[in-house]
Specification:
By secondary structure, this protein is α+β, with helices and mostly antiparallel strands. The protein folds into three domains: 116 residues, Periplasmic binding protein-like II (D-Maltodextrin-Binding Protein, domain 2, 3-Layer(aba) Sandwich), CATH 3.40.190.10; 160 residues, Alpha-Beta Complex (Dipeptide-binding Protein, domain 1), CATH 3.90.76.10; 102 residues, no CATH class. It has 20 helices and 15 strands. It has a four-stranded mixed β-sheet with strand order 2-13-12-11. A four-stranded antiparallel β-sheet has the order 5-6-10-9, covered by helices on one side. A three-stranded antiparallel β-sheet has the order 14-1-15. The N terminus and C terminus are likely disordered.
Length: 505
C-alpha cells in the first residue's frame, strides 16, 4: 500500500466504491457537451461519440481533487510522535520507512530494498537503498537519507524527554537495550537528554541493539528471537529522522515541525496547508521510486460531512466521493441515473477485534472472584462470546449493494459462493457441513499442504452463514459454474497444481 494519499488514491480510481469523474464537471454537463457536438448525419454522430468514448478512456487525471471529512484532519507533521491513524494516513505520503504493506497485506521494499534474518529472528539486517534524498517543501535536495537517519529516528523515539508519546511500546518490547536506554534518559535533565544523539560512540549506540556497519546497512538485535520483526518495520517507531534537521530547528522545533520546514523523503511534499480547509500534495521530483505513477498534485478539501462531499462531486469540484448505502442503492438500482456509469466498487476495510478477558479477577477487597475466573478459563465460555455476536446488519450492508460490493475474483466472492452451495446441499441433506462441501469442491486436488487453510475457510463460511441467509452468486447460474469459479480463486491462493474437478452437485 504505497502512500495512503498517493497510490491508495490512484488505486481508488479503479477499485473503490465511489463515484468517479474525469476532469471535473458533472455527468449531466459531460452528457450535454457530447450531445452538443451533433454532426450532419446520424452515422457520423455515432462515430464521433464512439471516438470520444475511446479518448476519454485514455484520459489521465494529473491533478486530483478529493474530499475528506474535517474530523480526519491531521494534528501534526512529526511522524515519529503521532499515535493517530489520521496523522499517519496523511503523513505516509510525505515520509517513507523501511518497508511498506501492499494492498494484499504483503511486505514490500521501501527505503530498505532487502531484509532478512539468519538466526531465526534474533538479529535482523536491512539493506538501505542508495540514492534516497531528503528534500524541502519545494522538492529541492537537502541531504541523503541513509542508515544513520534510522538510528537517529530510533534514538528520538527512545529518548524520554524528546518523545513523550506512547509509541515507544513496540521497540521497548522488541529491541535489545531499548528499555534500558529509555529508563536511562528519564534520569537525565531535559537539557542533558536533548543533547543526546545516535552518532558513533554515543550512549545510544553503547546501550541499544542497533548497529550501522556502513551507511546503507542496519542491524537490529532483538531481546529474543522475533521471527515477525520485519512485519513491524512499517510502523512509525522505525521511521528515519535527520540529525542535521534536528540541529537546524532544535529539539522542540522538530517536535512541532510543520509542512514548510520539515524534510521529506516520500512521494509528495505538502506545498500548501490550511488547517481544516485545504491541503495540497505536490509530486516529489526526486522521489526514489521512479516507477511509481503519481498525480502531479493531490488537493484535499476538508468537508463537514460525506453529504457535503457528495454535493461537491455533483458540482464538479472533486474527482470522486465515497457513498453511503442509501446513495448507492439510489444510483445502482437505476441505470438511467446520471451517475450510474460512474460507480466503481470499493475494497472493504479490514478490522480485527479482540476481547481481553481478565483470567484472575479480584474483588475490591482483594479476594478472588472464583465464579468469573472459572468461567473465563473455560474455552466454551469464551467461544460463546464469539458465537453470540450478531453480524447480520453488518453483512446486510454488503449484500444490499449487489455485485458492486466486490469483484467475483475476491475472497469475499469465494465465501459467498461456498455458502450458497452449502445452503443448497442442506436442502437435500440437512446435516451437510461447510467442510464437507469444500472437500467435495476440491475433490481430485492435492490438499495435504493446505488442509488447515481450507478448514479455516470452512469456519469463516460457517460464521457467515450464521448471520445471513442470502448469498450472492454473481450471475453464475449452475453449481458447476460456481464450483469452477471457487476452484479458480482457490488455485490462486493455495499451493497446488490445479486440475479439472468433477462437479459434486
Amino acid at each position: 500500500m504505497k502512500k495512503v494519499v498517493s497510490r491508495l488514491l490512484a488505486f481508488a480510481l479503479t477499485a473503490s466504491l465511489l463515484l468517479t469523474g474525469c476532469g471535473g464537471g458533472t455527468a449531466t454537463e459531460e452528457k450535454e457537451n457530447a450531445e452538443a457536438s451533433t454532426q450532419k448525419t446520424e452515422q457520423s454522430e455515432e462515430g464521433k461519440k464512439e471516438e470520444a468514448k475511446e479518448e476519454k478512456k485514455g484520459e489521465q487525471i494529473k491533478d486530483l481533487v478529493i474530499p475528506k471529512v474535517a474530523s480526519k484532519e491531521i494534528s501534526g507533521f512529526n511522524i515519529l510522535y503521532t499515535q493517530k491513524g489520521e496523522d499517519f494516513e496523511g503523513l505516509s505520503s510525505l515520509m517513507d520507512g523501511l518497508l511498506e504493506i501492499d494492498t494484499s497485506g504483503k511486505l514490500i521494499p521501501a527505503i530498505a530494498e532487502e531484509w532478512g534474518t539468519e538466526d531465526e529472528g534474533h538479529t535482523w539486517t536491512f539493506k538501505v537503498r542508495q540514492g534516497v534524498k531528503w528534500v524541502n517543501v519545494n522538492g529541492e535536495e537537502v541531504a541523503e537519507c541513509n542508515a544513520q537517519d534510522f538510528a537517529t529516528g530510533l534514538e528520538w523515539i527512545l529518548n524520554f524527554h524528546k518523545n513523550d508519546s506512547t509509541n515507544t511500546s513496540m521497540p521497548l518490547e522488541m529491541i535489545e537495550g531499548a528499555n534500558e536506554y529509555y529508563e536511562y534518559t528519564k534520569t537525565l535533565s531535559k537539557e542533558e537528554a536533548y543533547a543526546l544523539t545516535a552518532g558513533e560512540g554515543s550512549k545510544f549506540r553503547e546501550m541499544v541493539g542497533l548497529d550501522t556497519p556502513d551507511d546503507y546497512t542496519l542491524v537490529y538485535t532483538c531481546i529474543e528471537k522475533k521471527p515477525y520483526f520485519d512485519t513491524l518495520a512499517p510502523y512509525v517507531s522505525l521511521y528515519p529522522a535527520s540529525q542535521k534537521l534536528i540541529d537546524e530547528v532544535g529539539v522542540d522545533g522538530f517536535r512541532a515541525i510543520n509542512n514548510e520546514n520539515m524534510w521529506y523523503n516520500g512521494c509528495y511534499t505538502m506545498t500548501s496547508y490550511i488547517q481544516g480547509n485545504e491541503k495540497v500534495y505536490t509530486k516529489n521530483p526526486l522521489y526514489w521510486d521512479t516507477d511509481c505513477t503519481l498525480f502531479d498534485t493531490v488537493t484535499v478539501k476538508m468537508v463537514e460531512s460525506n453529504d457535503v462531499a457528495f454535493q461537491l462531486y455533483q458540482a464538479g469540484e472533486v474527482d470522486y466521493v465515497g457513498l453511503g448505502e442509501a446513495q448507492i442503492n439510489t444510483i445502482a438500482k437505476n441505470p438511467d441515473n446520471e451517475f450510474y456509469n460512474y460507480l466503481v466498487p470499493d475494497v472493504p476495510a479490514k478490522y480485527c477485534y479482540q476481547f481481553q478477558l481478565n483470567y484472575h479477577k479480584l474483588f475490591d477487597d482483594g479476594s478472588e472472584d472464583v465464579n468469573w475466573n472459572t468461567a473465563a478459563a473455560n474455552e466454551a465460555f469464551r467461544l460463546s462470546w464469539w458465537y453470540g455476536l450478531d453480524l447480520k446488519e453488518y453483512y446486510k450492508q454488503y449484500f444490499s449493494l449487489g455485485c458492486l460490493a466486490c469483484d467475483i475474483g475476491t475472497k469475499f466472492a469465494l465465501i459467498s459462493l461456498i455458502c450458497f452451495l452449502t445452503k443448497q446441499a442442506r436442502n437435500k441433506t440437512p446435516n451437510a457441513t461447510t467442510w464437507q462441501v469444500i472437500q467435495k469442491i476440491r475433490q481430485g486436488k492435492e490438499s495435504h499442504n493446505s488442509e488447515g487453510l481450507l478448514k479455516g475457510l470452512a469456519v469463516i463460511c460457517d460464521d457467515f452463514m450464521r448471520n445471513t441467509t442470502e448469498f450472492l452468486t454473481f450471475d453464475l447460474k449452475s453449481a458447476k459454474d460456481m464450483v469452477a469459479k471457487i476452484n479458480e480463486i482457490l488455485d490462486k491462493e493455495l499451493p497446488w497444481e490445479p486440475t479439472t474437478p468433477e462437479t459434486p452437485f
